[in-house]
Design goal:
Helix content: 25-40%
Mean pLDDT: 85
Oligomer: single chain
Distance between the termini: 78 Å
CATH superfamily of the largest domain: NusA, N-terminal domain
Largest sheet: 5 strands, mixed, barrel
Strand order of the largest sheet: 5-6-7-9-8
Low-confidence stretches: 357-375, 381-389
Number of helices: 14
Number of domains: 4
Structural class: alpha+beta
Protein backbone atom coordinates (compact mmCIF):
# COMPACT_ATOMS: atom_id res chain seq x y z
CA UNK A 1 0.00 0.00 0.00
CA UNK A 2 1.45 3.37 -1.02
CA UNK A 3 2.22 5.83 1.80
CA UNK A 4 2.50 8.77 -0.56
CA UNK A 5 0.55 11.81 0.63
CA UNK A 6 -2.43 13.02 -1.40
CA UNK A 7 -1.74 15.73 -3.98
CA UNK A 8 -3.62 18.45 -2.08
CA UNK A 9 -1.67 17.76 1.14
CA UNK A 10 1.65 17.77 -0.74
CA UNK A 11 0.81 21.06 -2.45
CA UNK A 12 -0.15 22.74 0.83
CA UNK A 13 2.98 21.54 2.63
CA UNK A 14 5.25 22.60 -0.23
CA UNK A 15 3.65 26.04 -0.52
CA UNK A 16 3.84 26.60 3.23
CA UNK A 17 7.50 25.59 3.30
CA UNK A 18 8.70 27.54 0.23
CA UNK A 19 6.70 30.72 0.78
CA UNK A 20 6.76 30.76 4.59
CA UNK A 21 2.97 30.57 4.89
CA UNK A 22 1.11 28.84 7.72
CA UNK A 23 -0.38 25.45 6.69
CA UNK A 24 -3.43 26.10 8.85
CA UNK A 25 -3.99 29.43 7.11
CA UNK A 26 -3.93 27.64 3.76
CA UNK A 27 -6.38 24.98 4.97
CA UNK A 28 -8.71 27.67 6.31
CA UNK A 29 -8.54 29.62 3.05
CA UNK A 30 -9.33 26.51 0.99
CA UNK A 31 -12.23 25.59 3.28
CA UNK A 32 -13.75 29.05 2.95
CA UNK A 33 -13.41 28.88 -0.84
CA UNK A 34 -14.99 25.39 -0.94
CA UNK A 35 -17.89 26.60 1.20
CA UNK A 36 -18.49 29.47 -1.23
CA UNK A 37 -18.30 27.04 -4.17
CA UNK A 38 -20.86 24.75 -2.48
CA UNK A 39 -23.35 27.58 -2.14
CA UNK A 40 -22.76 28.65 -5.72
CA UNK A 41 -23.25 25.11 -7.09
CA UNK A 42 -26.35 24.10 -5.12
CA UNK A 43 -28.94 22.51 -7.47
CA UNK A 44 -31.93 24.69 -8.19
CA UNK A 45 -34.70 24.14 -5.68
CA UNK A 46 -32.45 22.70 -2.97
CA UNK A 47 -32.58 24.72 0.23
CA UNK A 48 -29.24 25.82 1.64
CA UNK A 49 -28.60 24.75 5.26
CA UNK A 50 -28.63 27.66 7.68
CA UNK A 51 -25.07 26.93 8.87
CA UNK A 52 -22.46 25.37 6.58
CA UNK A 53 -18.80 24.54 6.95
CA UNK A 54 -16.26 22.82 4.71
CA UNK A 55 -13.41 20.67 5.91
CA UNK A 56 -10.22 19.38 4.31
CA UNK A 57 -9.07 16.17 5.97
CA UNK A 58 -5.48 16.71 7.11
CA UNK A 59 -4.58 13.04 6.44
CA UNK A 60 -6.25 11.89 3.25
CA UNK A 61 -6.92 15.30 1.67
CA UNK A 62 -10.62 14.60 1.19
CA UNK A 63 -12.90 17.63 1.05
CA UNK A 64 -16.44 17.54 2.43
CA UNK A 65 -19.21 19.99 3.26
CA UNK A 66 -21.18 19.76 6.49
CA UNK A 67 -24.37 21.39 7.73
CA UNK A 68 -24.51 22.25 11.41
CA UNK A 69 -27.89 21.03 12.70
CA UNK A 70 -29.55 21.36 16.09
CA UNK A 71 -31.00 18.17 17.56
CA UNK A 72 -34.72 18.65 18.33
CA UNK A 73 -37.63 16.42 19.29
CA UNK A 74 -39.80 17.62 16.41
CA UNK A 75 -38.27 19.11 13.25
CA UNK A 76 -39.87 22.40 12.21
CA UNK A 77 -36.97 23.86 10.19
CA UNK A 78 -35.29 21.15 8.05
CA UNK A 79 -32.51 23.53 6.98
CA UNK A 80 -31.22 23.88 10.53
CA UNK A 81 -32.78 21.12 12.63
CA UNK A 82 -32.48 17.33 12.82
CA UNK A 83 -34.42 14.74 14.80
CA UNK A 84 -32.79 12.87 17.66
CA UNK A 85 -33.11 9.58 15.75
CA UNK A 86 -31.31 10.94 12.66
CA UNK A 87 -28.71 12.68 14.79
CA UNK A 88 -27.74 9.44 16.52
CA UNK A 89 -27.02 7.88 13.13
CA UNK A 90 -24.32 10.51 12.79
CA UNK A 91 -23.19 10.56 16.42
CA UNK A 92 -24.58 7.87 18.71
CA UNK A 93 -24.07 10.00 21.82
CA UNK A 94 -26.16 12.90 20.50
CA UNK A 95 -28.78 14.40 22.83
CA UNK A 96 -31.52 17.02 22.44
CA UNK A 97 -30.20 20.57 21.85
CA UNK A 98 -26.80 19.25 20.71
CA UNK A 99 -25.23 20.43 17.45
CA UNK A 100 -24.23 17.74 14.98
CA UNK A 101 -22.51 18.02 11.64
CA UNK A 102 -24.35 16.34 8.79
CA UNK A 103 -22.48 15.50 5.59
CA UNK A 104 -24.26 17.41 2.79
CA UNK A 105 -21.56 17.09 0.14
CA UNK A 106 -23.48 16.91 -3.17
CA UNK A 107 -22.88 14.04 -5.57
CA UNK A 108 -20.12 14.98 -7.98
CA UNK A 109 -19.07 17.97 -5.87
CA UNK A 110 -15.62 16.56 -5.09
CA UNK A 111 -14.40 17.54 -8.56
CA UNK A 112 -15.57 21.13 -7.97
CA UNK A 113 -13.98 21.13 -4.51
CA UNK A 114 -10.66 19.84 -5.85
CA UNK A 115 -10.65 22.48 -8.60
CA UNK A 116 -11.44 25.18 -6.05
CA UNK A 117 -8.60 24.01 -3.82
CA UNK A 118 -6.20 24.10 -6.77
CA UNK A 119 -7.28 27.64 -7.66
CA UNK A 120 -6.80 28.82 -4.08
CA UNK A 121 -3.33 27.28 -3.88
CA UNK A 122 -2.36 28.83 -7.22
CA UNK A 123 -3.64 32.22 -6.09
CA UNK A 124 -1.72 31.97 -2.83
CA UNK A 125 1.46 31.10 -4.73
CA UNK A 126 1.00 34.19 -6.91
CA UNK A 127 0.36 36.40 -3.90
CA UNK A 128 3.41 35.00 -2.11
CA UNK A 129 5.54 35.57 -5.21
CA UNK A 130 4.30 39.16 -5.52
CA UNK A 131 5.10 39.69 -1.84
CA UNK A 132 8.60 38.29 -2.32
CA UNK A 133 9.23 40.56 -5.31
CA UNK A 134 7.95 43.58 -3.38
CA UNK A 135 10.23 42.81 -0.43
CA UNK A 136 13.19 42.33 -2.79
CA UNK A 137 12.77 45.60 -4.67
CA UNK A 138 11.57 47.85 -1.86
CA UNK A 139 15.03 47.32 -0.35
CA UNK A 140 16.51 48.70 -3.59
CA UNK A 141 14.71 52.06 -3.33
CA UNK A 142 17.26 54.89 -3.74
CA UNK A 143 19.64 52.53 -5.54
CA UNK A 144 20.75 52.03 -9.15
CA UNK A 145 19.68 49.03 -11.20
CA UNK A 146 20.69 48.02 -14.70
CA UNK A 147 17.73 47.20 -16.89
CA UNK A 148 16.85 46.33 -20.46
CA UNK A 149 14.22 48.34 -22.32
CA UNK A 150 11.46 45.84 -23.07
CA UNK A 151 8.96 48.02 -24.85
CA UNK A 152 8.04 51.63 -25.44
CA UNK A 153 4.54 52.84 -24.58
CA UNK A 154 2.73 56.16 -24.83
CA UNK A 155 3.34 56.96 -21.16
CA UNK A 156 6.96 55.81 -21.04
CA UNK A 157 9.25 52.80 -21.29
CA UNK A 158 8.97 49.42 -19.57
CA UNK A 159 12.36 48.26 -18.32
CA UNK A 160 13.15 44.64 -17.42
CA UNK A 161 14.87 44.65 -14.02
CA UNK A 162 15.36 40.93 -13.43
CA UNK A 163 12.45 39.50 -11.45
CA UNK A 164 10.06 42.29 -12.37
CA UNK A 165 9.58 45.28 -14.65
CA UNK A 166 10.16 48.95 -13.94
CA UNK A 167 8.19 51.87 -15.33
CA UNK A 168 10.30 54.72 -16.70
CA UNK A 169 7.72 57.44 -17.27
CA UNK A 170 8.19 60.05 -19.97
CA UNK A 171 8.77 62.72 -17.32
CA UNK A 172 11.59 60.64 -15.79
CA UNK A 173 13.51 60.23 -19.06
CA UNK A 174 16.54 62.36 -19.87
CA UNK A 175 15.35 65.14 -22.23
CA UNK A 176 16.41 64.38 -25.78
CA UNK A 177 17.38 60.79 -25.00
CA UNK A 178 16.05 58.25 -27.51
CA UNK A 179 15.55 54.78 -26.06
CA UNK A 180 15.10 51.67 -28.17
CA UNK A 181 13.96 48.17 -27.31
CA UNK A 182 16.92 46.13 -26.14
CA UNK A 183 18.91 49.12 -24.83
CA UNK A 184 20.75 48.55 -21.55
CA UNK A 185 20.25 51.51 -19.20
CA UNK A 186 20.98 52.32 -15.58
CA UNK A 187 17.99 53.63 -13.67
CA UNK A 188 17.42 55.06 -10.21
CA UNK A 189 14.65 53.39 -8.16
CA UNK A 190 12.21 56.08 -7.02
CA UNK A 191 9.64 53.93 -5.23
CA UNK A 192 8.03 50.51 -5.14
CA UNK A 193 4.23 50.36 -4.96
CA UNK A 194 2.67 47.15 -3.69
CA UNK A 195 -0.13 47.30 -6.27
CA UNK A 196 -3.56 45.67 -6.49
CA UNK A 197 -4.12 41.96 -5.79
CA UNK A 198 -4.38 41.19 -9.49
CA UNK A 199 -1.07 42.86 -10.28
CA UNK A 200 2.44 42.60 -9.00
CA UNK A 201 4.37 45.46 -7.39
CA UNK A 202 5.07 48.49 -9.54
CA UNK A 203 8.64 49.79 -9.57
CA UNK A 204 8.97 53.43 -10.62
CA UNK A 205 12.41 54.36 -11.92
CA UNK A 206 14.10 57.55 -13.09
CA UNK A 207 16.91 58.73 -15.35
CA UNK A 208 16.71 62.40 -14.28
CA UNK A 209 16.95 62.19 -10.49
CA UNK A 210 20.12 63.87 -9.10
CA UNK A 211 20.88 60.77 -7.06
CA UNK A 212 21.41 58.83 -10.29
CA UNK A 213 24.57 60.88 -10.81
CA UNK A 214 25.59 60.32 -7.19
CA UNK A 215 25.12 56.55 -7.40
CA UNK A 216 27.00 56.36 -10.71
CA UNK A 217 30.02 58.05 -9.13
CA UNK A 218 29.79 55.71 -6.14
CA UNK A 219 30.03 52.82 -8.59
CA UNK A 220 32.94 54.31 -10.54
CA UNK A 221 35.04 55.88 -7.78
CA UNK A 222 36.44 53.51 -5.10
CA UNK A 223 37.34 56.46 -2.89
CA UNK A 224 33.65 57.43 -2.72
CA UNK A 225 32.51 53.85 -2.14
CA UNK A 226 35.08 53.53 0.64
CA UNK A 227 34.04 56.76 2.33
CA UNK A 228 37.35 58.59 1.82
CA UNK A 229 35.76 61.04 -0.63
CA UNK A 230 32.30 62.37 0.14
CA UNK A 231 29.75 63.90 -2.21
CA UNK A 232 28.62 66.92 -0.20
CA UNK A 233 25.96 68.26 -2.57
CA UNK A 234 24.72 67.84 -6.10
CA UNK A 235 22.60 69.93 -8.46
CA UNK A 236 21.35 68.65 -11.78
CA UNK A 237 19.46 69.72 -14.87
CA UNK A 238 19.15 66.35 -16.53
CA UNK A 239 20.39 66.02 -20.08
CA UNK A 240 22.27 69.29 -19.92
CA UNK A 241 24.53 69.81 -16.92
CA UNK A 242 25.26 68.77 -13.34
CA UNK A 243 27.42 70.26 -10.61
CA UNK A 244 28.82 68.07 -7.85
CA UNK A 245 30.73 69.23 -4.76
CA UNK A 246 33.15 66.70 -3.26
CA UNK A 247 35.34 66.63 -0.17
CA UNK A 248 38.21 64.38 0.90
CA UNK A 249 38.55 63.14 4.46
CA UNK A 250 42.22 62.43 3.72
CA UNK A 251 44.36 65.52 2.98
CA UNK A 252 46.62 63.37 0.80
CA UNK A 253 43.80 62.51 -1.60
CA UNK A 254 42.49 64.98 -4.15
CA UNK A 255 38.68 64.60 -4.23
CA UNK A 256 38.26 66.19 -7.66
CA UNK A 257 41.06 64.14 -9.21
CA UNK A 258 39.65 60.95 -7.71
CA UNK A 259 36.29 61.56 -9.38
CA UNK A 260 37.82 62.54 -12.72
CA UNK A 261 40.16 59.55 -12.83
CA UNK A 262 43.28 58.99 -14.88
CA UNK A 263 42.81 60.57 -18.27
CA UNK A 264 39.23 61.42 -17.27
CA UNK A 265 38.26 57.74 -17.46
CA UNK A 266 35.98 57.65 -14.43
CA UNK A 267 33.95 60.72 -15.20
CA UNK A 268 33.81 59.79 -18.88
CA UNK A 269 31.99 56.57 -18.04
CA UNK A 270 29.39 58.52 -16.06
CA UNK A 271 29.03 61.08 -18.85
CA UNK A 272 28.55 58.31 -21.42
CA UNK A 273 25.85 56.68 -19.30
CA UNK A 274 24.09 60.06 -19.11
CA UNK A 275 24.31 60.50 -22.88
CA UNK A 276 26.86 63.31 -22.85
CA UNK A 277 25.55 65.38 -19.94
CA UNK A 278 28.22 67.86 -18.77
CA UNK A 279 29.44 67.46 -15.21
CA UNK A 280 31.27 70.11 -13.17
CA UNK A 281 33.17 68.52 -10.28
CA UNK A 282 34.15 71.14 -7.74
CA UNK A 283 35.89 71.08 -4.37
CA UNK A 284 33.61 71.62 -1.40
CA UNK A 285 34.73 74.03 1.32
CA UNK A 286 33.37 74.92 4.73
CA UNK A 287 34.28 78.50 3.85
CA UNK A 288 31.12 79.71 2.08
CA UNK A 289 32.98 82.26 -0.05
CA UNK A 290 35.36 79.65 -1.39
CA UNK A 291 32.53 77.17 -1.93
CA UNK A 292 30.42 79.73 -3.81
CA UNK A 293 33.37 80.74 -5.97
CA UNK A 294 34.10 77.09 -6.79
CA UNK A 295 30.44 76.49 -7.60
CA UNK A 296 30.50 79.17 -10.29
CA UNK A 297 33.24 77.30 -12.16
CA UNK A 298 34.29 77.71 -14.98
CA UNK A 299 33.99 81.45 -14.30
CA UNK A 300 36.75 83.09 -12.24
CA UNK A 301 35.39 84.91 -9.18
CA UNK A 302 37.42 87.80 -7.72
CA UNK A 303 35.31 88.90 -4.73
CA UNK A 304 32.47 87.51 -2.63
CA UNK A 305 30.30 89.62 -0.31
CA UNK A 306 28.38 87.59 2.29
CA UNK A 307 25.71 88.66 4.77
CA UNK A 308 26.07 86.80 8.06
CA UNK A 309 22.39 86.22 8.78
CA UNK A 310 20.74 85.67 5.42
CA UNK A 311 22.13 83.07 2.98
CA UNK A 312 22.48 85.64 0.22
CA UNK A 313 25.68 86.91 -1.34
CA UNK A 314 27.07 89.02 -4.14
CA UNK A 315 29.99 87.86 -6.24
CA UNK A 316 32.18 89.89 -8.53
CA UNK A 317 33.70 88.52 -11.72
CA UNK A 318 35.83 90.08 -14.47
CA UNK A 319 33.77 91.95 -17.05
CA UNK A 320 34.57 89.43 -19.78
CA UNK A 321 33.42 86.52 -17.63
CA UNK A 322 30.01 87.84 -16.56
CA UNK A 323 28.13 85.87 -19.22
CA UNK A 324 30.22 82.77 -18.41
CA UNK A 325 29.39 83.06 -14.71
CA UNK A 326 25.68 83.44 -15.40
CA UNK A 327 25.68 80.77 -18.10
CA UNK A 328 23.33 80.14 -20.97
CA UNK A 329 19.82 81.11 -19.88
CA UNK A 330 21.22 81.51 -16.35
CA UNK A 331 22.04 77.83 -15.96
CA UNK A 332 25.49 78.17 -14.37
CA UNK A 333 24.27 80.60 -11.72
CA UNK A 334 21.12 78.59 -11.14
CA UNK A 335 23.01 75.32 -10.58
CA UNK A 336 25.54 77.06 -8.34
CA UNK A 337 22.71 78.39 -6.18
CA UNK A 338 21.16 74.92 -5.90
CA UNK A 339 24.53 73.36 -5.12
CA UNK A 340 25.47 75.81 -2.36
CA UNK A 341 22.05 76.69 -0.98
CA UNK A 342 22.89 80.40 -1.34
CA UNK A 343 21.11 83.08 -3.33
CA UNK A 344 23.81 84.50 -5.60
CA UNK A 345 23.84 87.97 -7.12
CA UNK A 346 26.53 88.18 -9.84
CA UNK A 347 28.11 91.49 -10.83
CA UNK A 348 30.91 92.41 -13.18
CA UNK A 349 33.84 94.45 -11.85
CA UNK A 350 32.58 97.53 -13.69
CA UNK A 351 29.11 97.16 -12.16
CA UNK A 352 30.59 96.60 -8.72
CA UNK A 353 32.84 99.66 -8.94
CA UNK A 354 29.77 101.84 -9.49
CA UNK A 355 28.12 100.50 -6.33
CA UNK A 356 28.74 101.09 -2.67
CA UNK A 357 30.09 97.94 -1.01
CA UNK A 358 27.03 97.96 1.23
CA UNK A 359 24.59 98.29 -1.65
CA UNK A 360 22.97 95.48 -3.61
CA UNK A 361 20.92 96.89 -6.44
CA UNK A 362 17.69 95.26 -7.38
CA UNK A 363 15.46 92.45 -6.20
CA UNK A 364 15.20 90.37 -3.08
CA UNK A 365 18.96 90.18 -2.61
CA UNK A 366 19.19 93.92 -1.95
CA UNK A 367 16.49 93.89 0.74
CA UNK A 368 17.67 90.74 2.52
CA UNK A 369 21.30 91.85 2.72
CA UNK A 370 20.38 95.25 4.07
CA UNK A 371 18.48 93.58 6.92
CA UNK A 372 21.47 91.39 7.82
CA UNK A 373 24.76 92.35 9.44
CA UNK A 374 27.44 94.10 7.45
CA UNK A 375 28.53 91.94 4.51
CA UNK A 376 31.95 90.33 4.71
CA UNK A 377 34.15 90.80 1.65
CA UNK A 378 36.42 87.99 0.50
CA UNK A 379 39.05 88.53 -2.16
CA UNK A 380 39.28 85.16 -3.87
CA UNK A 381 42.74 85.78 -5.34
CA UNK A 382 44.07 86.06 -1.78
CA UNK A 383 41.83 83.35 -0.38
CA UNK A 384 42.68 80.60 -2.89
CA UNK A 385 45.92 79.59 -4.62
CA UNK A 386 46.14 80.89 -8.18
CA UNK A 387 46.58 77.41 -9.62
CA UNK A 388 43.62 75.89 -7.76
CA UNK A 389 41.31 75.11 -10.65
CA UNK A 390 38.34 72.77 -10.69
CA UNK A 391 37.50 70.28 -13.37
CA UNK A 392 34.67 70.74 -15.84
CA UNK A 393 33.84 67.78 -18.05
Amino acid sequence: MSSEKPEVIQAIEMLAREKDISEEMLYATIEEAVKAAYRKNLPRGVAEPSSVLARVDRKDGSIKVYARMMVVEEVENPSGQISLQEARKIRPSAELDDIVEKDVTPRGFLRVAALTAKQVITQRIREAERGRIYDEYVEKTDEILTGVVQRLESHGAVVELGHTEGLLENGEMIPGEVLREGDHVKVYVLEVIRGAQSHGPQVRVSRIHPNLVKRLFEMEVPEIAGGVVTIKSLAREAGSRSKMAVHSNDPMIDPVGSCVGQGGGRVDRVVNELRGEKIDIIKWSDNPAEFIANALNPAHVTDVYIGEDAKVCRVVVPDKQLSLAIGKEGQNARLAAKLTGWKIDIKSQTQASNMDDMEYDGGVVQEEVRESHEPVRFNLEQLMPADDEDDTI
